[in-house]
């Protein structure tokens, strides 16, 4: 028999109320959702609906939710079956909710059949038949036509991009361009996409361009892609001169296209959480930011040998500058670079020191020197620390004067993390600019300015 509890005030009638709970994202509310809620309500007397937060959806890999949490809750309420709406924020919440609300029946659609059998220890579990031929995914794909992505470049990062893009709905990887036919073919065969060596032909086959070619070629490719009416996602560093970044953003504005710099850290949920905690005043006024990222590379690697455009700062500087620009802003008073160079003049290790009116910062990177690779944010009340690989932020701690007092935060970081930036890029293309603040145009321009200063000083 199903457990029940008495309706308050009706105890004298001895009536037992059956409480039902269901959960979902309820994005682009549709008939399938309506019918599910209707039948869930009919299973008992009181229906609680758990609507997932954006952060939870992201954490479980559901990256293309269109409606805000507020809109999704409103739609669930409007359907008229929910007696109570709660939000679902994390994995493991269901068991606690069932106990807390003294739930009798847990129900979801049959697409989840079997997945929640473990809840049978706590209440009855009912899988309701899913309504055929309708889903949020179908509606999303119908509303936003599939964007055909073309990749320029066939290096390591391009290899990582394809499996990540496959996890984001609304895109398909169409082809790859490389002026060298053998490289283009090898890459295209591996990923079963088309190979192009003719740029015009390439542009006519795609809607969106992902640029993963050597740094020095970015500017020309971005310009030509925008001039061909393509949206552009470009690997960091997008360009190496401030004026070029300004010119390209202006061109994108004129052409009404999205130009987006791909620094994956900027879009990863854990890094966001960290910036949120840093901005919340938990550690007081921020006075010092230290970001470090080092990698040991083969001596003959492109990064350590590419004339002019190799070296640690061009390769990793965007990552270490990112938290500094996000926390202190673009208007530093002073920047100084100290570098250790290899025989070919490229930097093996660089420390950029920045002074701001209210604090100082260092951005350290190395390709031939190994360090601990940590992000440290020191404030007037405490400090935040994220250990390597903080650029794929999944865990950080907040420490205070009392060494025993430590707040711990974690967030899921899936795969190579490129899925987050691809998903935000797509949202922008589809007219949703709610992710734009994660890496603003101004910040990208400032990053190009820092790269320019670094190159001038290195040459000087
Ligand atoms: N549901 C249903 N019939 C559908 C679609 C969803 O019964 N055609 C149910 C789901 O099984 C779940 C609830 O509605 O119990 C909320 O589902 P949700 O994941 O928000 O909707 P989907 O349309 O399945 O979303 P997506 O395509 O993003 O997975």
Question: What does this protein structure show overall?
Answer:
This protein has 460 residues and is an alpha/beta fold. 36% of the residues lie in helices and 25% in strands. It has helices at 31-42, 54-59, 69-79, 93-100, 136-143, 156-165, 181-191, 199-205, 218-227, 242-255, 264-267, 269-279, 302-305, 312-328, 418-429, 441-459; strands spanning 5-6, 16-17, 19-24, 46-52, 84-88, 105-109, 124-128, 147-152, 171-177, 194-196, 208-211, 231-235, 259-262, 286-294, 334-341, 347-356, 359-366, 375-379, 382-386, 395-400, 406-410. The strands form 4 sheets. Strands 15-16-17-14-18-19-20-21 form an 8-stranded mixed beta sheet, covered by helices on one side. A hairpin with a 2-residue loop joins strand 16 (347-356) and strand 17. Helix 10 (242-255) packs antiparallel against helix 16 (441-459) and helix 14 (312-328) crosses helix 16 (441-459). The longest helix is centred in the last third of the chain and has 19 residues, at 441-459. The termini are far apart. Residues 1-13 have low confidence and may be disordered. The structure holds cytidine-5'-triphosphate. Cytidine-5'-triphosphate binds next to helix 1, strand 6 and helix 5.
